[in-house]
Structure prediction request, 504 residues.
Amino acid sequence: MAKTTSKSVIINPPDFLDAILKGSDLYIHFSFFSSEAESVLIKIIHRYLEKYDLMYLREAIISIAKELIANAIKANLKRLFFKMKGLDINKPEEYRRGMESFKEEIFEEDNEYLNKLGQSNLAVRVLFKSSHDRLRISIVNNVVILESELVKINSRVKKAYKYNDIAEAFDDVLDDSEGAGLGLIMAMMLFKNSGFPADSFRIYRKDDLTVASINIFHDMREVESKIKITGEILKEVDEIPAFPKNIIMIQRLCSNPESTMKEIADHISLDPGLTTSILKLSNSAGYVTMKRIESIEDAAKVIGIKGINTLLMATGVHKVIDSRYKRFEQIWESSYKRAYYSQRISIETKRNRFSESAYLSALLSDIGTIVILSINHDLMQKLREVAGRKGIDDPNLLEEISLGISHSTLGGMICSKWKFNESLVKAVEFHHRPHMSPEKYRELIYIVYLADCFSDIEKNRFRFDFIDEDVLKHFSLTEKKSFDYLHNVLKEGYSNQMKIQLEK
Prediction:
């Protein structure tokens, strides 16, 4: 018997985890895409891709499925709208008349059509069917698509596979009133960039139903997704200033076991600007200290050589940003809170050995964003506006659609150019993709990812339901109560640090 998790979402079989394990068919069924339906969809896709070792496709498949679901629900709303208006959707003149007011009326707050949709027999069903060589995800709605709509959708899908980047789509798409506009093109470009052949996706009519299906072959892991990095980005990475020489020299002292605290402090003190920057950073709200640090020697005593080395690296990166990307300094400044969270998570979860590297990794995690915005600021702003309307939460996806590279991958490239250690490079590169993280650096990457989740939740860009389940299990945070408790500890700690900073 099908399981009803609420009045709005039905899951069949009830134990979907067992169904996935056994390879049984399953579906979720709903009238509108509630947060509960979204959460279940994400968990099911996650489990399937985990089973077939295809986790690198997770965000792409989730975004594509959500876009297709949105189109299916919009199609159902359209049929309901025409019926309630007494218009025949199959008559061209009445269709044109109805569409003139459809979008305006249907997306009003508390509109009667959404309420009526929940009471009607119009619904969407997401079917998961696993076979020996593939997983098929089918989004089915129980109204038949018009021939004119089907032609338009197939035309857009075909075009999406020809675009080189999303800018071409912006220029080409004139309207998306049929649900086959920019959102679908973005989804299909992501589909293509993930290595899917064009025939892996179909939209078709079957009896009185409309079906959109995605075929995910089990051997997809052998497909190498081509990263298309624009010449502008490569040029920018090449032209990023080298890491400051004086900082590199002092770092070498820090790595020498025979160096004394006084020797390191004396070398730093020879550079008044560097001394000021390190003291400012060590006394900031983004760094965990409980007393005011007055000198480099005090800093060395309080935070140790590892701490000094971390602040040296942070100061060096800030100098580069200040010299080349001054107008994006606000992004860098906002990273201090995430860095504090990473360092504090390490301490709270008894992983103190990662506290310094977690701080620095989180601080540097958005360095790629700064570079991308410096090159394609207007395009990224457009993409983020579209993403807000389309419910695409992951900024990495937008970057990959438009540029062929994400800010995290680009950040890893920049850290490699500066010859940072491998753990830091990987933490920056995989902080949005913990499921793909190399096992050797997984602990550190999980910490930075979790700090990023807390930060995004505070900005209303993320939810507990969306967090990688493996990360939650790793930190024993699968219960929301435990998760919220740690989040409150971090928020309170940061707030206290802000107060300490003001008092210092």
